[in-house]
Structures are given as structure tokens and as C-alpha cells.
């Protein structure tokens, strides 16, 4: 079973590179195979001379003198002059790449690929790539994979590592039975892996994505079917006699519940008093107030002497829920106790929490994925709530339910999908929709600015801060990357602090220690920080009502639904709020402009999702982060509704014929269904 081997078995990968990969979540050969490209790039044919300033282009030419490297404030800068075929002189600059000096052969013909800019009449390539002409021409013919990278890891290194993993592991046994591949015209696992990493054409990519999407759908439906057959018609043995706490807490909230919230809550309560145990999906746009519904149902469980658990996808969100719950308990003098359980806790705290959960001392258990780890034993768990369910796999949800004895399950989602699809995806679940937002809400005003107008945006933020409000600034990266351009929180923070020493700013990203993250979030919540400069870790759930502006750098890089979620961080109180989208393509990327305008015009999540579907490029797959719905990595029900339907039918037929997936041809499928971690594929 080579798939579980560490990366160091690949020749050329030592402990240092291994560590870089680990930071991206790639630990085994299998992870490497499943580390799908973020997108693909087609190299353009080389031009005689660059025309369009500000565009990526390729130019054929040669160097006639040796490059020169200087040091400037600790930065090495290597420069040279490219003489293009048509006689242009183009300045070429590389930062932090002194070694390039040695690799340049004078008078050799190269293709130089990168962004050209015009500096008062002089053309300049910054940080371009150099290729041998022949190699470059073969590259123009096929889509080149672009991987997610981290500092120290280049796209080339990833490609080589993937190559290594492919040659060690293939052929793999296909988890999908051959007759299903034939029926749905899908390539087998080996072809699909090769084609997704080393495609010859767009069709190769399309077919591979289709196959992996189908696999995700199929596993999802099979897991659901398996679980449903276990939980089918389970009698509800929980007894609910009291509702006085529920009533009094509802009455003492600082707001009145909206119609949608009231309905969702009464739906849950009705379920809990029904004959059978049920699952319910609460669908409500970002900011519609799903947390209140969750908390109130947990209180209802507690006053009837049952435990409830709330699972959140990030530690930041978990802490926020926990603190809110503690506050609610103390404000209402409730005789209940909440505990928090997440990764990275102190050993003693963790032990204490586990004891309280086991003994039943804890009424409310609020946590991250840690809630489903093996050593957690619940007391009399009656209700499990999964917040931001699209961040979890179906299996993770199932494991949490199996922790109790057939508890009720409520899953909360802000992902708006058409009803026709949700009927297939959430078959067997009851659905409550919260379509209204609290009355006091104002529309979030959204502006699109060019990067050159950043000062305007900053000034706007300063004004809001002067009024006593707070702001988020979102950057796509943590640190400067050698291969991708875009703002990073580390440098941005330095720059911002230099420009605005009087404003209290703080930085937040996923690679900070847990304590540090907690500390910064706490300070932001308590308004000790005015401006939070953060990566998208705040994308889900974070709720600071005093924040009235969110500035999103490189907004053109984000998907529309993601921008909509980010925008939902503001406008949570009754103050007028603003979202500033910085278009780093400066309006040159037409598709990006269209997407940003679509967001500007629309405030409704459903509408945004539909526009997103229409405007998204066909090559943009999302291979590494869970997005969309139901924890899919690659599949997208909106884009592939027919495939979704096929997979649902296939899963139902398989289960009908082999309810426990015991037949030989289905054993692998069962194994994947039972795996807690990866949905796509697992060690067989
Ligand atoms: P989401 O549905 O995105 O999870 P939250 O539950 O975090 O939204 O709620 C967003 C904000 O709206 C919170 O600050 C919450 O206190 C507030 N809120 C919730 N319900 C109401 C309501 N009915 N009226 C006014 N504000 C509300
Ligand atoms: Mg929420």
C-alpha cells in the first residue's frame, strides 16, 4: 500500500520540502495525488513585441550582457535587458532570484513570459519566467496546471512531486465498479488522475473533473443512504415536558425573532416532539440569524435534561459561539453549563471538558471537528447541530450523530441552491428556509475600486474608525509568494501600520497559533482593535456587529459566493455598512469586472449563486477547499445537476441491491463511505 507512504519516498523530496507540503495538508502519496490543480493556465504564443501593457504575455528574444544583481534593503534585485526579435529593448527584473544570473546563456533564444508594464516609455518585465523556445512551444499546446503554493514551494516542485507520486502509485484499483463508469461514460481512476495533473487538452480536464465529481456525489449519496437505513424510522425516545426556559430566553433577547427564525425554531421543536427522530436543514442567507435558532433549540433540549452539541468548522467561529452561549447563560441565569472542545487545547482543559461531557455535567458542547474524535463520549446527546454544514463532509456529520443514540440532527447552511437540487441533495431531510432578514438591516453599499484608488478606500476606513466603527481588510495570502501576485496580510499589516500609526490594527490568519488567533479575535470583538487585517479565515460565521466596512483586496480572485459570504461580515447590526471590492485587474479582466458588478447589484444569496454559475470560467475548479455545499471538494451540484441526479439514482440502486455494501464489487465504496477524512478516495 504505497499510497500511505510519506512524501520523502519520492526522489528529490527531503524533509524540508516535505514540511512545506505538510503545511498545505499534503502528507502522503495519496494526498499528493489528490492535490488537484487550483486552475490551469494556457501559455500564449510568443509575440514579436509586447503590445498590451498590464497583460501576461510571452516574447521571444535574447540577452547580450550578463545580468547584474544588486542588494537593496535586504532584497536582491537582478536585472538584464532583453532584445526581442523585433528589436525592442525590454528591461527584465527578478527579485530574490540571484541564481537566475548563472542560468542565462548569452545570445541564446529564450521565450520570456510574464507581466509587461510601461515605465515612462520603457517596457519592463517583472519576475518573468524564462523558457527554452522549443519547450515553450510544446507548452502552448497543453493546459498547464497551477497548484496552490506556499512560501518555499514552487509550481514546478509540485508538478515534479505529483509526477513522482503518480509513477510510484499507479495503477490503483478503481473504487467505482466498471459498469458504473461505462454507464456514465467516465474515465477510470488512473486515467483521471493522470489527466487532471497532466492534461493534453481541455477535454481531458473536463472528463477527469466529471469523474471525480461523480465519485464525490456517489459517495455522498451512498453514505447518506447507509446512514438513513440505520436511522430509518427510529422511534423518538426523548421526552420534552418543559419549555419555560425557551420562552423566557426568547422573550429576553434584545430583538424579536423574524418570521423565518420563529418558523425554523417551531419546526425543530415539532420534530423533537414527533414520533420519529429526524434530520432538518435550516437554510438561511448569511446574517439571517441562524445562531439564535440553534441556541434556542439547545436550551429547549437542556431544560428537558438532554445534552446538545454544536459543531463549527473553524476555531474562530467555535470560540465565538462558545462565548455567546456563556453570555446567554449568565444573562438569563440559566442553570446550564457549556463546554468548549477543539484541537490544540491544553491537555488538562481537554481532559476536564471530556469528563464533563461524559458525566453529563455539560449541557451544551460547542466545538470543532474535535467533537467527533474517538475519545469523546457523550452522556445523553439528543440534538446535534452542524453549523456551516458545507464545510463538513457527510461522513463527519454522520460520525457526530453516531456518537449519540439516534439524536436529532439540525444542519445549518448559508449556501443557497435551487430547490430542485436541494430536494436531491437533502432527500429525506426536512427543510426550513429563513428567507427574511431582521427588519433593522440596511442594504450593504458595495463599491468597486481599482488598486490605484486604495488611498481612497483607506481614507474611508479612517473615517469610519473615527466614528467609532471597525473594519475588516481581507487579503488572499498570508505571506509574499514567489509565484502568485496578490496582497498578503503580513506585508499589508506593515504598510498599513506605517501609514496609520494612530489606528489600532491587528492581523489574523490560519497559520497563527491558537492562542494568538483567540487573542486577536477577542481584541477585535472588544474593540481594542479597530481594523482587522485578515485572510479569509473570517469568511464563515464571524459576527462583530460594530464592524461597518469590509475592504477586500484582489477581489477579482475570489468566487462570487465567497465574496458574498465575506461581505456578510458587515451589516450585522443596524448601522449602514459598506463593502469595498478592490479589483486588482484594474478593470482589465472583463469577466472579473462582470462578477464584481453582479455582486454590487445583488444582495440576495440565491441571486448571487445563480450569477456566479453563469459567470464562472469553465476551468476554475476548486480542488483543495471545501466549498459549495455538502463538503464537496471538487463536485459542484449547480454546475452538474444531471450528474448529481445520475449519482443519486445509482446510489439508490446499489443500496437496493446490496443494502450494506457487502458485495465484492462494492466493498471499496463502503470503505470510502466509512472514512472520516477524505471523501474522494481513500486507502484501499
Ligand atoms: P447567520 O445566519 O449568518 O449565522 P447570525 O446568527 O450570526 O447569522 O446573526 C447575525 C447577527 O444578527 C447577530 O449579531 C445576531 O445577534 C443578529 N440577529 C439575529 N436575529 C436577529 C433578529 N431577529 N433581529 C435583529 N438581529 C438579529
Ligand atoms: Mg452563522
If strands are numbered along the chain, what order do they take across the biggest sheet? 11-12-10-13-14-9-15
Distinct helical segment count = 23
Structural class: alpha/beta
The tally of strands reads 21
Unreliable spans are 618-629, 679-684
Mean pLDDT: 88
Radius of gyration: 27 Å
What is the 3D shape? globular
* Ligand catalogue: adenosine-5'-diphosphate, magnesium ion
Helical proportion?
Answer: 25-40%
Q: Main β-sheet: number of strands, strand sense, barrel status?
A: 7 strands, parallel
Beta-strand percent range: 15-25%
Structure description:
With 684 residues, the protein is α/β, with parallel strands linked by helices. β11 (338-341), α13 and β12 (364-367) form a beta-alpha-beta unit. The relative contact order is 0.11. The strands form four sheets. Strands 11-12-10-13-14-9-15 form a seven-stranded parallel β-sheet, with helices on both faces. The chain binds adenosine-5'-diphosphate and magnesium ion. Magnesium ion is lined by residues 290-291, 387, 541.
Short description:
The chain has 684 residues and is an alpha/beta fold.
Record keyword descriptors for this entry.
disordered C terminus, 684 residues, binds magnesium ion, 18% strand, 21 strands, 23 helices, seven-stranded parallel beta sheet
